[in-house]
Design brief:
By secondary structure, the chain is an alpha+beta fold. It has three domains: 295 residues, Rossmann fold (3-Layer(aba) Sandwich); 138 residues, Jelly Rolls (Sandwich), CATH 2.60.120; 85 residues, no CATH class. Strands 1, 3, 4, 6, 7, 8, 9, 10, 22, 23 and 24 form an eleven-stranded mixed beta sheet that branches. The chain has a six-stranded antiparallel beta sheet with strand order 11-21-12-17-14-15. The longest helix is centred in the N-terminal third of the chain and has 19 residues.
Length: 620
């Protein structure tokens, strides 16, 4: 793993109540005594970058963790654009030639919890050509740039979940910090008591729907391939975790032989495979021990952990067989190699894999409408559920800061989002015991069809909220208004996102003399038939395509917006006006065709100078 340099290194764990525990790392030692529940927490004195070291812990027993590096540790979190794996990023092939084992990532398994949990499963993974496909692409790009410039080990703790709002990542007690957040508290109160019945209704409907919509998945008549002795010599050998090739929906079959001692066969009670997108059937020695389908809310990202009945495992060779099935989008095993466990035996490595039948779309006239799982405390979209399961157990690990790529699921609630994101950041800083913990935000990228008639935008308002929070103490915002894709909410260019966030860290946290953001609005003035907009961070102000600057809208006392033409003079853009126009908006659209950059090629930050009411907000 990687631990944070230059800060006390927090170490915690469990032993017998009242047990003295001694921890040592890199020549430093700390002691602690477990409390009545058996938990201990200790802080080792700070260390300089280096390693590898061995972390030794002694109490009622001994524990040693080798290959521990001391460097810089960051959290990377958010929704699907942070979760997006390197396997699906534009620079995958290039990145595989730039890997370094001094860059490492810990991916937090997805977990919904109704109260904060205290422990988290997972493992640190070195960045190597055969491992980075499962890394967060943004987190890896951020880490890679830091490593190149700082020359110290970099550790990323990746905790994200696609499609989730910021309130899911926030402790519920922080919703009382602002009147704007009271509607979130009301959602929590109104859902209490109704979730169980709603879930029962959902499962009743989905039991009928899925057998019609997924006939291939539910056809288990051919199970010969799950048996020991089946000839899989013609199957491909693939390392786990295995991800479906782009564009394929349907089934894959996977086999792995594991040799166990008599004691292991008797004592092992569970098999774990991490999350699988979308469905699976898991067999041991020909007997199905678990299935995840639409009966499980968030089936596409739920970690698989199945109980093994007594007598299924045996001494000697045991055959594990898993049938995975995807019906839309990406598919396959989406966890880390460390998530593959038969009891305490890691079962990653190479499996035998065969592509099976393709998914056949069944007409909705046959299936009826797809039932929707009810929102409630079992949902990753529900307030605090992901904070409880995927953030709380990480604290108080010593870190430098966090990067955050989220907001799509809060678009339309921009005013509330300013208060919500501020509360969430305060929550995290309190949990990690770091009042000045750095927090850097990736703004929403440009998305949806360009619309030259658009002057109001929920996405533009959300970007503005992200920038308002980004200008608060300890925070920062990287704009990516130039790298989005009109038809895809998931831009494949993740390198620029990570590297722009890294620029902020290199400037603010590490004191490097670099330009760390694009041109930022400073002031506006009017004279005659011109409006002058002055920018900071505008050395070498120019346009990316050599044309005049675009995406400037102006309005006067009639509050009617229109596009303005202009020219660049030094760090200013001079706009033409024909009346009393004095208000300016820049890039205030879902997908503005921006071209204003500075000498570093960094795009100008969207802004508005007016204080007109936001027309698209919805703060429920």
């Amino acid at each position: 793993m990687v631990v944070q340099r230059g800060k006390p290194i927090n170490v915690w764990g469990w032993d017998s109540p009242g047990q003295k525990v001694t921890i040592s790392l890199g020549g430093q030692t700390a002691t602690a005594t477990t409390d009545a529940s058996g938990k201990f927490t200790a802080s080792l004195p700070k260390l300089n970058a280096g390693g590898p070291f061995t972390l030794n812990v002694s109490g009622s027993g001994q524990k040693s963790i080798s290959d521990v590096l001391v460097g810089e540790v960051w959290i990377c979190s958010g929704q699907s654009n942070m979760e997006w794996p390197m396997s699906m990023a534009n620079d995958r092939a290039t990145a595989k030639t730039e890997t370094d084992p001094n860059v490492r990532m810990f991916t937090v398994p997805k977990l919904i919890a109704q109260s904060p949990v205290t422990d988290v499963a997972g493992s640190w993974v070195e960045a190597k050509p055969d491992t980075i496909d499962t890394f967060s692409a943004v987190g890896y790009a951020f880490a890679r740039k830091l490593y190149r410039d700082l020359k110290v080990p970099i550790g990323m703790i990746h905790t994200s979940w696609g499609g989730t709002p910021a309130e899911a990542w926030t402790n519920s007690k922080y919703f009382a910090t602002s009147d704007l957040l009271k509607p979130i508290l009301e959602r929590i109160k109104s859902s209490q008591g109704s979730t169980a019945q709603a879930m029962a209704n959902y499962r009743s409907k989905v039991a009928v729907y899925q057998t019609k919509a997924l006939p291939i998945f539910f056809d288990t008549s051919d199970s010969s391939w799950t048996q020991a002795g089946f000839d899989d010599s013609g199957w491909e050998s693939t390392p786990m975790p295995f991800v479906f090739p782009d564009g394929f929906d349907g089934e894959y079959r996977h086999r792995r032989t594991v040799t166990l001692s008599a004691e292991q066969a008797q004592n092992i009670k569970t098999i774990e495979l991490g999350p699988i997108d979308d469905f699976d059937q898991t067999y041991i020695n020909g007997q199905m021990v678990g299935q995840t389908d639409m009966m499980t809310p968030n089936f596409y990202s739920s970690p698989r952990k199945y109980s093994i009945p007594d007598g299924v495992l045996k001494e000697g060779e045991n055959q594990i067989a898993v049938r995975t099935y995807d019906w839309t989008g990406g598919g396959g095993f989406t966890g880390t190699a460390g998530a593959f466990r038969l009891g305490n035996v890691n079962i990653a490595g190479n499996w035998k894999t065969m592509q099976g039948a393709k998914h056949v779309i069944v007409d909705a006239k046959v299936t009826g409408p797809q039932p929707q799982a009810p929102e409630g405390s079992n949902s990753p979209n529900f307030p605090s559920t992901l904070y409880n399961g995927m953030l709380a157990p990480l604290a108080p690990y010593s870190v430098r800061g966090a990067i955050w790529y989220q907001g799509e699921s809060n678009a339309g609630r921009a005013v509330q989002y300013t208060a919500l994101l501020s509360a969430m950041i305060q929550n995290w800083r309190d949990d990690f015991g770091q009042p000045k913990m750095s927090f850097y935000i990736a703004q929403l990228a440009n998305f949806m069809a360009p619309n030259p008639a658009q002057f109001d935008s929920a996405w533009a308002e959300l970007r503005d909220s992200q920038d308002i929070v980004g200008q608060m103490a300890g925070n920062g915002t990287a704009t990516i208004i130039d790298i989005g894709e009109a038809n895809d909410i998931h831009p494949r260019n993740k390198r620029d996102v990570g590297e722009r966030l890294a620029r902020i860290a290199l400037k603010k946290d590490y004191g490097m003399r670099i330009e760390w953001q694009g041109p930022r609005f400073k002031s506006v003035s009017t004279k005659g038939d011109e409006i002058t907009v002055t920018f900071d961070h505008a050395n070498g102000l120019r346009t990316a395509d050599g044309q005049e600057p675009r995406c400037f809208a102006i309005a006067g006392s009639d509050n009617k917006w229109k596009w303005a033409t202009g020219r660049i003079e030094g760090n200013k853009v001079i706009l033409k006006r024909s009346g009393d126009e004095a208000m300016v908006r820049y890039a205030w659209q879902d997908n503005p065709p921006v071209n204003l950059i500075n000498a570093e090629g960094l795009p100008a930050m969207p802004f508005r100078t007016d204080s007109l009411p936001l027309t698209t907000r919805n703060n429920r």
